[in-house]
Amino acid sequence: MSSPQQSALRFHRRRVPPSPQVSTCCSFAPPLPPRDCSFPSSSSAAMSPEISMLIRRAALIFTVLTLSALLLYTASDSLRLLPLSSASLSSSSFARIFPSYLNNYASSPIIDSENPTQQLEEVLKNASMVNKTVILTTLNDAWASPNSVVDLFLKSFMLGDGTRRLLDHLVIVALDEKAYNRCRIIHKHCFALVTEDVDFHQEAYFMTPHYLKMMWRRIDFLRSVLELGYSFVFTDADIMWFRDPFPRFFPDADFQIACDNFLGRPDDMNNRPNGGFNYVKSNNRSIAFYKFWFSAHETYPGYHDQDVLNMIKFHPFISDIGLKIRFLDTAYFGGLCEPSQDLNLVCTMHVNCCFGMDSKLHDLKIMLQDWRAFMSLPPDLKNESIISWRVPQNCSLDSLRHFGSPPPEMDFQQEEED
């Protein structure tokens, strides 16, 4: 019994005589002046109105306390049966956009659904390396279906040389509901990036307005990661990870990025960067740079982030803030624009300079087959580099001629896939 209940009972026992008797005088009869209206002996004691009121008040307090305790017990028992109250998410913009998210949220950490920054910080913390560095990729519906790009992306980590452990530090940033649900099935670190009134679930064809909006949303998101104090390696999902890239990064650079075309020197600002792969350290310089980069899309409307980077990399603001930029050698960070020639050196390979989902999937599968064949060789034959890439095949620079809009057959295929 609770302390308030015990106090009430003690009060009850202290104030009520064992066998009260009602007197003919005192409380029920009109007062008679000659008589002495005092309490009689214990065998015939009577209660005054004040004592009766106190008893009723104690009984009321006891009843209220008992009902409160019962309600609290019932509520706590119900909470044990429910992993998360859906009422706590009812006003969340995320819940309004992704209704099925409530079905998957039970296995996630319970965090403030009204605070996406707190949610992001929780995911980053769980995936972070000891130096607060994470690996990030974005995913939408078009690349999230089974046997699509994301499966090949994760498979490359499993087949790579020393890359499997890096999956513990990979965060998949889902741009739509289907991508988020798929991520929850295949990976443990998932974050839903909600953009009000924007649906990123379809394939974003190169340089279309939809593609541009997605690219600039990504830049703004990466800025927020830096502001939370996390450094990151950003990687497109159509990049295969074959070796741990961290030993090949420059230890003193703030911002380092892969190239479509590498001219031989990492500090040559004429290198042609590719925004699909970069390593950025969180500090005041990199945060200022990402803010400047994002704001530049208003200065250069209609251009994607990579083209704008090529324009602003010579801007005096870069040197004013002291940002140190380094460009990554395609010998280690190659792509179909400029493949890494030596499989003994390659860390990542990007299916860039390629248009269309089917072409990407075809060449990605060929690339993984080539890597498997290389890894199966004995050490002496690996050093002789007798195996080289068989790609590009379906991907080619010619495919980019149609970047303004998808060819008719691609529209038809996409409608069938949807």
UniProtKB/TrEMBL annotation:
Pfam families recorded: Nucleotid_trans (PF03407)
Record's keyword annotation contains Transmembrane helix: yes
Compartmental location: Golgi apparatus membrane
Keywords noted in UniProt: Cell wall biogenesis/degradation, Glycosyltransferase, Golgi apparatus, Membrane, Signal-anchor, Transferase, Transmembrane, Transmembrane helix
GO BP field: cell wall organization
Sequence ranges assigned to domain Nucleotide-diphospho-sugar transferase in this UniProt record: 166-364
Gene Ontology CC entries for this record: Golgi membrane
Enzyme class: transferase
GO MF terms, alphabetically ordered: glycosyltransferase activity
Membrane-related topology note: Single-pass type II membrane protein
Membrane spanning stretches: 54-75
EC number: 2.4.2.-
Family in the record: Belongs to the glycosyltransferase 77 family.
Protein name: Glycosyltransferase
Organism: Durio zibethinus
Underlying gene: LOC111318123
